[in-house]
Amino acid sequence: MDETCKRNRIIFHIDVNSAFLSWEAIARLDAGEKTDLREIPSAVGGDIETRHGVILAKSIPAKRYGVTTGEPVVDALRKCPELVLVKPHHAMYKKKSHAFMEILQQYSDQIEQFSVDEAFVDMTGTERLFGPPLEAATEIKNRISRELGFTVNVGISSNKLLAKMASDFKKPDRVHTLFPEEIEEKMWPLPVRDLFFVGKAAEQRLKSLGIRTIGDLAHTDQKAISRVLKKHGEVLWRYANGMDDSPVETESPDAKGYSNSITVPFDITDAADAKSVLLKLSEQVCTRLRRDDVRVETVTVQLRFDDLMRASHQGPLPTATNITQEIYEHVCQLFDEMWDGTPIRLLGVSATKVSHEQQGRQMSLFDTTDYEKLEKLDRAMDAIRTRYGSGAVQRASNLEKGTE
Q1: Angle at the Cα of 325 (from 322 to 331), degrees rounded to 5?
Q2: Residue environment code for 75-90, b if the CB has 16+ CB neighbours within 10 A, otherwise e
């Protein structure tokens, strides 16, 4: 994509305001209840048995008491004894999310669903259909509110990063722009913690360098950041300067099935532990790819942290593949670029851009990998596991190098 196309892109990031709580409130009002959960101190609480009960979403009145997403329910009740707690209903959230996406699909066929309650929409070239970006965003926002009963924020920019940052500005029910020429005024004064991909651990390391705002980070020498945060630091420096050329990735129906994730029983704070889990997830995904005799061109790593904030990082593969080692090595690279040490609660791996035909591999003079041998190894391991069970054979040290 050339520079002119990048500048002319129009990307929306559309985020449901307090999604779980809003959807619970609407369901209760539809059932005849008089009290709107959004107007009282209330929260959707997690599964007390498995995670000791954490807050998944809270109302604005609950926020005024200091209730935060991700904190234990017992702590939230200590802050606000009259807090109304609601159990989550995930099947209902999926239905609400589907209705949300159905409306977006009427404005663009280039939609990347980032999570159950947010999506990127490429609106480039739709001005003749829906008007200027602000007008189109306002129409979408108002239509969702009118037809579905909940509110959203819409961020508008020329890339995904800035659109997402814009949607996090003042809430609820707002439209915000954050184009490159607005970064200095709108983004750089914000606390560095507000930058996408900056977790608690990275925030503390950046503060140790005297970096308090996103602007401070943008104006710090990139090499100094990289010395402290390695690859993750390079990504953060680029983001602080508004740099992001990632496309809106529209998944094909075939691609959606090739993913695995797991919520871990303890918070992961060590990269080796995380990569051990990612290896198992990569193995599961690749086994299914080989079973269906397909290959993929893109992999994505998803993380959810102990404060329930989410992060997702996607990257292309050099060639379409279903080889476990090849995909796992790229998964580790993506993980290193996105993780800052914040405790992890969930990890996921997904493989997209599915190809049903074997493509020629672009070889490099410096790549001595025997891909034919790796393919045979994968097939042999698949056969053993099919016959004797998933634990019958384990990966050798050629993959363990990523988990040291």
Answers
A1: 90
A2: ebbeebeebeebebee
Cβ partners under 8 Å of residue 347, min gap 6: 261, 262, 264, 268, 274, 277, 278, 281, 301, 302, 303
pLDDT tens for 105-122 read 999 999 999 888 999 999
Q: Decide: 9 and 158 in contact? Cβ < 8 Å.
A: yes
The single-letter DSSP state of residue 191 is B
- Of 71, 118, 203, 251, which is the active-site residue? 118
Torsion angle of the four alpha carbons 387, 388, 389, 391, in this order, in degrees rounded to the nearest 10: -140
pLDDT at 329: 93
H/E run at residue 374: helix 371-388
Find the DSSP H helices in 121-270: 127-130, 133-148, 160-167, 183-186, 200-208, 214-218, 222-240
Sheet with 259-268: strands ordered across? 259-268, 344-355, 295-305, 310-321
| Rg (alpha carbons) of the chain, rounded to whole number | 22
Interatomic CA distance for residues 325 and 335, integer angstroms: 15
What would the pLDDT profile of 84-97 be if each residue is shown by its tens digit? 999 899 899 999 99
Distances (CA, A) of 31 to 42, 99, 148, 231: 18, 19, 15, 50
Q: What does the pLDDT average to over 130-135?
A: 97
Is residue 24 among the annotated active site residues?
no
